[in-house]
Amino acid sequence: MSGTAEPTAMMPLRVASRRPLAHDIVLFHLVPEAGADLLPAFDAGAHVVVMTPAGLTRRYSLCNTPGERHRYEIAVKREAQGLGGSRSLVDQVQVGDRLPVGRPENFFPLDAHAQRFLFVAGGIGITPIVAMLRALQGGPRPFELVYCARSPEATAFADELRAPALAPHCRLHHDLGDPARAFDFAPLLAEPAPGTHLYCCGPVPLMQSVRALSRHWPAGTVHFEDFGARPTAAPTPPSKEQAFTVRLARSGLEVPVAAGTSILQALRDRGLPAPSSCESGTCGACRTPVVEGLPEHRDYVLDEDAADEIMICVSRARSPLLVLDL
Ligand code: FES
């Protein structure tokens, strides 16, 4: 999730330390001002919004052990080709600086009823998952991680993942940038053990591959966190998107959805709020039944060929008219 407007109620946190974690990845520790209250609590999988020096908000998973309230730990990958948010953090922010930071939110929580966990991480997508490993470590529920990184130098938290406490649970895979060396997830995902929940965070191609290979898993057991890797509303440049019309079946009201605008936003603009949470196609909160028309799915919850439901925060329409059960 990203943007330019500063969310309300951001806390000014001080950068207590920064250190290189892997190639182009920096680990920051953010603490409250001396004498200030402890930080709001968070669970594994939570993230905070940070206002970067470039004036862009960015979402970062909290990596530290859930329950810690004296600091937040975030790992920032310097995206050389990005809009400049992460780059400004890595290049400009030094120990002692203040950063506006929002309260933790969690669209990627560990399932309380899961009996075991399978984690798949790619690149900087390890960050929410390392907090999950720390939360589960030493507990009764088994867990396993496959972490794909380009090279040993690009592997974040490598020392911790290789240490005796976590090493038996972790497989680190390096493809060295060669697609022929990509990890083969098919055998791993073929037959989910009963009670297993799958959590995946990483680049879009990795999540798409895992999503395709886990379609047969029981409903509600596969979870994705896009970690801002996916544009919040427009994987296609807005200039190339097609406008369409949404008709609300219960009232007959028709709402035009322009290129570059989500259905959710178009409804809001007409004073018609709908449920939502992550607004990036990962949580399922905005799931809406489709009565007529052809959805174009851009989320991580529904199958690509699902015809009777749509996530209105990111998905669009292939047909000129989409009739929703609203
Ligand atoms: S609000 Fe989370 S999927 Fe749409």
As for the CATH topology of the largest domain, it is Rossmann fold
Q: On the 0-100 scale, what is the average pLDDT? A: 89
Query: Termini distance?
Result: 26 Å
Strand order within the widest beta sheet: 10-9-8-11-12
In total, how many domains does the architecture comprise?
3
The percent of residues in helical segments reads 10-25%
Q: Tell me the series of helices and strands, N- to C-terminal.
A: EEEEEEHEEHEHEHEHEEEHEEEEE
Instruction: Please name the fourth-level CATH homologous superfamily of the largest domain.
Output: Nucleotide-binding domain of ferredoxin-NADP reductase (FNR) module
Bound molecules: FE2/S2 (inorganic) cluster
Major pleated sheet: 5 strands, parallel
How much strand? 25-35%
- Overall morphology: globular
Offer a concise description of the structure:
The chain contains six helices and 19 strands.
Describe the structure.
- This protein has helices at 85-92, 126-136, 158-162, 186-190, 204-213, 263-269; strands at 2-3, 11-22, 25-31, 47-51, 57-61, 72-77, 98-101, 116-122, 143-149, 170-174, 196-201, 222-225, 244-248, 254-257, 287-292, 295-296, 309-311, 316-317, 321-324.
- With 326 residues, the chain is α/β, with parallel strands linked by helices.
- It has three domains: 2-101, Translation factors (Elongation Factor Tu (Ef-tu), domain 3, Beta Barrel), CATH 2.40.30; 116-225, Nucleotide-binding domain of ferredoxin-NADP reductase (FNR) module (Rossmann fold, 3-Layer(aba) Sandwich), CATH 3.40.50.80; 238-324, Beta-grasp domain (Ubiquitin-like (UB roll)), CATH 3.10.20.
- Strand 11, helix 5 (204-213) and strand 12 form a beta-alpha-beta unit.
- Mean pLDDT is 89; it is low at 1-7 and 228-236.
- FE2/S2 (inorganic) cluster (FES) binds next to loops.
- FE2/S2 (inorganic) cluster (FES) is lined by residues 276-279, 281-286, 299, 301, 311, 313.
